[in-house]
From TrEMBL:
Subcellular location: Membrane
Keyword entries, A-Z: Glycoprotein, Glycosyltransferase, Membrane, Signal, Transferase
MF-aspect GO terms: glycosyltransferase activity
Protein name (Swiss-Prot/TrEMBL): Glycosyltransferase BC10
Record membrane topology: Single-pass type II membrane protein
Entry superkingdom: Eukaryota
Organism of origin: Raphanus sativus
Amino acid sequence: MFSSSTLLYPLSLFLSLSLLFLLSPHILLSSSRNNLLSTADELDDLSLFHRAALSSSNTRRLISLSHTPPPPPKIAFLFLTNSDLTFLPLWETFFQGHEHLYNAYIHADPSSTISPLLSSSSSINAKLIPSKKTARASPSLISAERRLIARAILDDPNNLYFALVSQHCVPLHSFPYIHNHLSNSHRSFVEILSDEPFLPNRYNARGFDALMPEIPYQDFRVGSQFFVLAKRHALIVIQERKLWRKFRLPCVDAESCYPEEHYFPTLLSLEDPQGCSPFTLTRVNWTGSVDGHPHTYGASEVSPQLIRMLRRSNSSLDYFFARKFSPESLQPLMEIADDVIFRD
């Protein structure tokens, strides 16, 4: 007869191998995502953030000594993309005539071919910033967004609002409508949610209590990836270090790991909840989402009624932007741009 100890070793080995087989995809995925953030890239980013914060401090000092009225605020549009900007013609129409009130910055994945946006045929004065590899549901997206913000702060001291958009975003209002509302609000617009049913899984995505002690569960927040930040909050984002050390950790639950949707809501909820409007200005339709991607509007769905529906929100402001739209929807969007989209 076999003793219990004789059976214990093969059983333990079997269970260990089974557990390794089940977890290995998550371990490998987390490892590959985390490896996107090299030490050299981190040091490069820290240097950039330091220069941007110092530049802003010097600018504030000069303004305080000046007796001339400050220039009008500019909006920095931060395009985060992994492909060409299909909707460039629509954005050109949106920006036309307002060159003194905006700047555009593009963080494109190194594998993309974004050069047409910067050609002489484009009326958008866009700047392609040095970019690094990014991956969906990865802390590399937080790095890219912080990098965009820092570059915009360094580039123009009059950038007072920072609007993050993607290659699939389209404007829902005219430029003057958006600029007037932002310059009169003096607030940031970042979705901050604390009562979602998936909150526990998101909190423990890196392991049980891995965010402790810096981020207790009651302080953890989630929200949309897309935001509009006032400059005072943009500076908080690029100077923050403590929370970043936690949110850059690799995840063991890849299905619940969306750092870019957690870091900004949590940070700003902790730093200045009263200074933020806790909703996003980018409309996304999650009905019938597939593999974590929202509904994509096709050409046949584009209509004046769709634009007016997408604008409506439960907050005091309409939505400013919407996503996702398919490349084929550009032509019908252009056909209603002047009479509907840019007529508020």
